């Protein structure tokens, strides 16, 4: 038996013992394991499962063990994933700390910061949100103005952030702040701020979908300890860019297949709505449109696979991440538009009688999908990035 | 899944790229067109293609080929597509070799494949009868006549029809148009009595013909594959053809994209390089995405063929339709972004545009392949 086989055997046994039964069922949204100081656990097993996994560092399997991560090799992490999938285990922890901040801290933070924050992320103790955009700095993110002044023994922060995900439920925010007004990109720093600090206020923003996953966050005379600066002063833009890459790859992959899948597949829905001619959807234009869309989806999936195969072969694919964000989100938007065509008025209910929960969820997801090509860098910004970095087209 | 080329395949690509770039540039096609060449291809170029082993790339070594398989063939087609190289590669090395390999008897393989690999025999597939590809709609009849068959009817859009030594004719020995049952294939000497070949001049300056069969008698040994049951092999090789045209279209689209990008970086208007305009930058970036998408679907189709996977039809239709649409976009943008000069015959944009539309129709346009993809998906 190889070491990897042994690891699989042990992992399987451990999961059998430590993954509660209810954590092996599909996860309703309200039971998502975001962690943090204010977390509520409608299902207490969620917390048990999180703690069990965190005790081994397996919420972050490949992070270094010295900071609380799992310290697993790539192969071991793959085995762990396979074993989790085998028992349909829910994720033990979903968190922006895991997906975005953690990798950046491991690369840029001081030893003390890593010791403290990485461990807290792994354990799900702190729920993080991201303070990047401002009312005056969207696509032009580096134009941000939130002021951060050096007051000797602390920093003083004043400004406003927007599109801070779940800020009203988070414990800490990682922020881009302006520490030098005489230059643009080189006057930005990366700062960690506790949301419990005096002067921090988060107000939810209601979206066109009716949900409020984002907030406006106001920072008024907030005192921040100096040890909360990550990396060097005025070098925050480098960290910000790296973090955006993590965010973009996360967004481009999300939502692929969801929504329509919950409806039992777009083809099945089309058959119900338009009738069939043999096995075929009776309406040939809808049938063609669905085939065209599914071709786009398959082609995009193949391109993701090819990029990862090329990366493994050491070839790389330039600004691949930017292409994926653009293409993936545009395909996803087209999918929902097509689903609306297929479902007709049944995809246009808002609430109440006449629509089932799946239909209502399509309506809301369609509206939410509009944001995919805006958040994390708009499609237009992505195209700019491709034109400049990959194609070498000159600036105006 | 082989979405990355092996070392051997990369060497083949580099060799093909060097060859077509240096020996068969676009000026070669212009010369054939402008001199109204009778053959419509350059015999010296074909001899070199044979010399490099490309004519027998699909053919196993035991029959005189190089045995690189569909992926190798597709790689060569892409490079040929980049320079619009006119040659019998598609009609003979793809379809001819493919059909004989898939459906031929041992005797037919032993007799014909070495000839193809050696460049001594050219073939053409006589399939289409209507304006839109759909192999099951073949209506032309092959009636029993003595020990053999008598062929009557007319075929159109027969690629390389007027230069072929041997025609591979799809005809009905049973069943009706719309049915897969009853389709047969015959090897017919292009010089046989009753065969009339009329060259058609297509927009892409490449070879095609109308072929009429007026009671053409063939022996029983002319049948390629089972009488009345040739459809599975035919369909399989058509999928090979579709993947290879998609590969060739990809090469053309890459060439147009590269050339257009260079033009955006040098052309000045309003005192600036036009590549600084965001209206053009974004469209260039979209073309980049399309080229990347096309590379993936072409590699996928060729891999499916290489590995004899059961999703060959789906992968081939995906590649043919998806690359066809991308090539439409990219060739249109190529002309538009070159502006007035893009409309002139002096630059190559128009040649690529014309070729892309012919390729898009070969073995099925996007509509056909989307419908087929839906069929295969059970909707």
Characterize the structure shown:
Chain A: It holds the Pfam family Acyl-CoA_dh_N. Chain A: This is Acyl-CoA dehydrogenase family protein. Chain A: Residues 234-391 form the Acyl-CoA dehydrogenase/oxidase C-terminal domain. Chain A: Keywords: FAD, Flavoprotein, Oxidoreductase. Chain A: Belongs to the acyl-CoA dehydrogenase family. The complex is a heterodimer of chains A (396) and B (379). With 396 residues, chain A is an alpha+beta fold. Chain A folds into 3 domains: 3-123, Orthogonal Bundle (Butyryl-Coa Dehydrogenase, subunit A, domain 1), CATH 1.10.540.10; 128-236, Butyryl-CoA Dehydrogenase, subunit A, domain 2 (Beta Barrel), CATH 2.40.110.10; 254-390, Up-down Bundle (Butyryl-CoA Dehydrogenase, subunit A, domain 3), CATH 1.20.140. Chain A contains 11 helices and 10 strands. Chain A has helices at residues 3-18, 45-55, 74-86, 96-108, 111-123, 236-253, 266-274, 284-312, 320-343, 357-369, 379-390; strands at residues 128-131, 147-150, 154-165, 172-178, 188-194, 200-205, 214-225, 229-230, 276-277, 280-281. In chain A, the strands form 3 sheets. Chain A has a 4-stranded mixed β-sheet with strand order 1-4-5-8. A 4-stranded antiparallel β-sheet of chain A has the order 2-3-7-6, with no helix packed on it. In chain A, α1 (3-18) crosses α3. The radius of gyration of chain A is 23 Å and the shape is globular. Chain A starts with a helix and ends in a 6-residue tail after the last helix. Residues 254-260 of chain A have low confidence and may be disordered. Chain B is α+β, with helices and mostly antiparallel strands. Chain B folds into 3 domains: 7-121, Acyl-CoA dehydrogenase/oxidase, N-terminal domain (Butyryl-Coa Dehydrogenase, subunit A, domain 1); 124-229, Butyryl-CoA Dehydrogenase, subunit A, domain 2; 232-376, Butyryl-CoA Dehydrogenase, subunit A, domain 3, CATH 1.20.140.10. Helices cover 51% and strands 15% of the residues of chain B. Chain B has 11 helices and 9 strands. The mean pLDDT of chain B is 97.
């Amino acid at each position: 038996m190889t070491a990897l086989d042994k690891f699989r055997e042990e992992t399987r046994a451990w999961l059998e013992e430590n993954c509660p039964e209810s954590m092996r069922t599909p996860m309703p949204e309200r039971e998502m394991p975001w962690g943090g100081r204010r977390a509520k656990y409608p299902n207490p097993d969620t917390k048990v499962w999180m703690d069990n996994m965190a005790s081994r560092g397996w919420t972050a399997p490949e992070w270094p063990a010295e900071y609380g991560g799992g310290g697993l090799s790539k192969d071991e992490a793959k085995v762990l994933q396979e074993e989790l999938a085998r028992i349909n285990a829910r994720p033990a922890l979903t968190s922006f700390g895991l997906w975005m901040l953690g990798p950046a801290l491991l690369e840029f933070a001081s030893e003390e910061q890593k010791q403290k924050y990485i461990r807290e992320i792994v354990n799900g103790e702190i729920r993080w949100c991201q303070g990047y955009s401002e009312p005056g700095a969207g696509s032009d993110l580096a134009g941000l103005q939130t002021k951060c002044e050096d007051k000797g023994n602390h920093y003083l922060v004043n400004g406003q952030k927007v599109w801070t995900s779940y800020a009203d439920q988070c414990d800490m925010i990682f922020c881009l702040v302006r520490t030098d007004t005489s230059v643009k990109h080189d006057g930005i720093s990366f700062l960690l701020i506790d949301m419990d600090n005096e002067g921090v206020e988060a107000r939810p923003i209601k979206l066109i979908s009716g949900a409020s996953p984002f907030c406006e966050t106001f920072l008024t005379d907030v005192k921040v300890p100096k040890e909360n600066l990550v990396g060097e002063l005025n070098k925050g833009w480098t960290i910000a860019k790296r973090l955006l890459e993590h965010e973009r790859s996360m967004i481009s992959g999300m939502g692929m297949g969801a929504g329509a899948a919950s409806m039992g597949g777009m083809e099945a829905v089309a058959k119900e709505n338009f009738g069939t001619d043999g096995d075929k959807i009776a309406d040939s234009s809808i049938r063609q449109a669905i085939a065209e869309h599914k071709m786009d989806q398959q082609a995009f999936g193949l391109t993701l696979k090819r990029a990862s195969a090329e990366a493994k072969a050491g070839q790389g694919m330039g600004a691949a991440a930017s292409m994926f964000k653009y293409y993936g989100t545009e395909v996803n938007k087209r999918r929902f538009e097509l689903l609306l065509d297929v479902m007709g008025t049944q995809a246009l209910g808002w609430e109440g009688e006449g629509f089932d929960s799946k239909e209502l969820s399509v309506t809301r997801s369609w509206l939410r999908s509009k944001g995919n090509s805006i958040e994390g860098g708009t499609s237009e910004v992505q195209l700019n990035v491709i034109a400049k970095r990959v194609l070498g087209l000159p600036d105006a | 899944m082989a979405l990355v080329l092996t070392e051997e395949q990369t060497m083949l690509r580099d060799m093909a790229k060097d060859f077509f770039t240096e020996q068969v540039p676009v000026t070669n096609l212009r010369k054939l067109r402008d001199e109204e060449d009778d053959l419509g291809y350059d015999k010296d170029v074909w001899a070199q293609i044979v010399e490099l082993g490309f004519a027998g790339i699909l053919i196993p070594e035991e029959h005189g080929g190089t045995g690189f398989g569909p992926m190798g063939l597709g790689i060569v087609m892409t490079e040929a597509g980049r320079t619009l190289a006119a040659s019998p590669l598609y009609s003979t090395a793809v379809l001819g070799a493919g059909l004989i390999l898939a459906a031929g008897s041992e005797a037919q393989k032993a007799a014909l494949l070495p000839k193809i690999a050696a460049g001594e025999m050219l073939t053409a597939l006589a399939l289409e009868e209507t304006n839109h590809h759909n192999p099951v709609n073949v209506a032309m009849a092959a009636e029993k006549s003595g020990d053999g068959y008598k062929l009557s009817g007319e075929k159109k859009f027969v690629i390389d029809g007027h230069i072929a030594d041997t025609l591979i004719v799809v005809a009905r020995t049973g069943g009706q148009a719309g049915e897969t049952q009853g389709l047969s294939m015959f090897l017919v000497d292009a010089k046989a009595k009753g065969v009339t070949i009329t060259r058609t001049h297509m927009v892409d300056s490449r070879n095609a013909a109308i072929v009429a069969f007026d009671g053409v008698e063939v022996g029983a040994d002319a049948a390629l594959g089972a009488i009345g049951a040739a459809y599975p092999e035919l369909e399989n090789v058509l999928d090979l053809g579709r993947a290879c045209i998609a590969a060739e279209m990809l090469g053309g689209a890459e060439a147009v994209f590269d050339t257009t990008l260079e033009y955006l970086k040098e052309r000045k208007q309003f005192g600036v390089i036009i590549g600084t305009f965001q209206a053009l930058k974004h469209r260039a970036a979209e073309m980049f995405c399309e080229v990347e998408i096309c590379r993936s679907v072409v590699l996928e189709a060729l891999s499916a063929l290489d590995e004899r996977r059961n999703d060959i039809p789906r992968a081939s239709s995906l590649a043919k339709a998806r690359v066809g649409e991308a090539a439409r976009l990219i060739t249109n943008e190529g002309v538009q972004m070159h502006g007035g000069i893009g409309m002139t015959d002096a630059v190559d944009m128009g040649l690529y545009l014309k070729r892309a539309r012919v390729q898009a129709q070969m073995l099925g346009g996007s509509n056909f392949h989307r419908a087929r993809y839906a069929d295969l998906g059970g909707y």
